[in-house]
Amino acid sequence: MKVGKRLKSTVCSTNVVVVRAADVALSCGGAPVVEDLAGEPSGDVAPGLDGGTLLGKRYLHEASGLEVMCVQAGAGSLSVDGVVLEVKAAKSLPASD
Amino acid sequence: MSILMLLTMAVELGADRVAVTAGDEQLTYGELLDRSRALGAQLREQGADNAALLDLNTAAFPVALFGAAAAGVPLAPLNYRLADERLTEAVGRLSPVAVYQGPGVSSRVAVGAADALLPTTALLGAPPAGTELPDDLADPESPAVLLFTSGTTGTPKIAILRHRHLFSYVTSTVEFGHAGPEEAIMVSVPNYHIAGISSVLGSVFAGRRIVQLPSFSPEAWVDTAAREQVTHAMVVPTMLARILDVLEERGETLPALRHLSYGGGRMPVPVVERAVGMLPHVDLVNAYGLTETSSTVTILGPQDHRDAIASSDPVVRARLGSVGRPVPSIELEIRDHDGRVLGPGEIGEVFVRGEQVAGEYTSHTAVADDGWYATRDQGHVDTDGFLFLRGRADDIIVRGGENISPEEVEDVLVSHPAVAAAAVVGVPDEEWGERVEAVIVLERGAADPSAELTGWVRERLRSTRVPSAVHLRDELPFNETGKLLRRVVREELSRVGVPS
């Protein structure tokens, strides 16, 4: 997993980009995300991991430091080892350019 | 991942919202994406390694920027003010290249057999039906933008900004889609300046309408701000003083404007104070950044400005002359010549590290293995981490082994009521190695203060800082984005027998 890498859910339309890498396995909707962007999602979003992802939000796995940004929203939740990733609070930086 | 993704995400917020206004031209987010993809297809067909743009700030610029990304080739925005021979040289270095030239640019560029020279009108029409529009082809590692440095000595360098640098910069400093529907930002910095590029990328990601000002004049800036109900703008120092003059003459207050950022060179504190007085409803932001860092690395925010203005504590008050603190994704250190990290108040070279830091040229990389980049800017931080810049390392005057910052002396000279502007440089000297000399511009109608200026400096600074000569001039040499060209002053004064 590398910064800038795009990853895709296999069970919903979620796509994320890695913002801060960590050596953990990321899942979405209960199924491991994949690097291959081709192909349609299939299968079901696992119960309890169906909170969904929001476009443009950053998600953080506190224990490992893994951080991803959602670039396409979907019905599954992001998780690592069953722990659902939290939405990282938005910073309020003033526009500088 | 590429910068095109910033646009595809913004389209999700509403394809029919206006993305760009430029005079009579207007593009929605959906149209901007369609045209960018069409250009991507066109560029792939041409097989060019690079795309180049030679244009004023028009709607063609965002199309070229995102279109090149769609094709997986970098865009090199060129300085249309350069002489034709320089532009032809630049195009030669980019070959095979597809050059798009706008109708407002009269340059005559010679392109090679492997190149294409096309009008920007080719970018703005709707793509013909049946056009195959490519997906995002760019790799995060591939170059997104190539920028020619100003090249004050010798051949200009070509700075490389990769997709991951710009993407990281935008996504770590801008919250996606947070702009209100009424927000509009005016881009008046040219598109071959890093701020002209980062402004377009950041505004698209924020969902803020972009108003392109084709070419800066203070009158056009004020007219456009009023007509387009501009809420946000970014200016370089030389622009702001002239804009304030026009506002004052017209009694215009720009009630819609609420956010004004400035950067790209040293802003005189009196100009900031004047802006605060004339535009009390406007939030001011000072930003410091470089081409090589994908733009902003430090920010002095609106509250910092208000705190400084209101404070009687000299430390807080002085922050009006600071460029603020690092953005969260940037680490910053001040180091001495031996690489030792310095503490608050100690002047040294500014080093930065972070995902947005490219520090790379087509010829070499200037980033150390551990990710730190030497900015060549001198400065210090105060006890709360506010950065104060003290000029380029190359501008430091070394007099008898003592390092003297020209800004320190310039600030004192400008604080004299008769002095409108000042440039201080080191002139070769047999005894001291270099001696301090100053060039000043008088306030309109002021009497020549030269006789009393050495005393004025001596009362305020150490005696080594006192200029050994003060020369009067009608104006100082600035580049078009507001940087004082001390090198030009130094060269002039270094010639023998310059009259004061």
UniProtKB/TrEMBL annotation, chain A:
Domain of life: Bacteria
Protein's UniProt name: Uncharacterized protein
UniProtKB/TrEMBL annotation, chain B:
Gene3D superfamilies reported in the protein's UniProt record: 3.30.300.30, N-terminal domain of ligase-like
Domain AMP-dependent synthetase/ligase: 14-361
Top-rank lineage group of the source organism: Bacteria
GO terms, biological process: fatty acid metabolic process
Annotated AMP-binding enzyme C-terminal domain residues: 408-483
Pfam families assigned: AMP-binding, AMP-binding_C
InterPro entries xrefs: AMP-bd_C, AMP-bd_C_sf, AMP-binding_CS, AMP-dep_synth/lig_dom, ANL_N_sf
Alphabetical UniProt keywords: Ligase
GO molecular function terms listed in the Swiss-Prot or TrEMBL record: medium-chain fatty acid-CoA ligase activity
Official protein name in the record: Acyl--CoA ligase
Source organism (scientific name): Nocardioides caeni
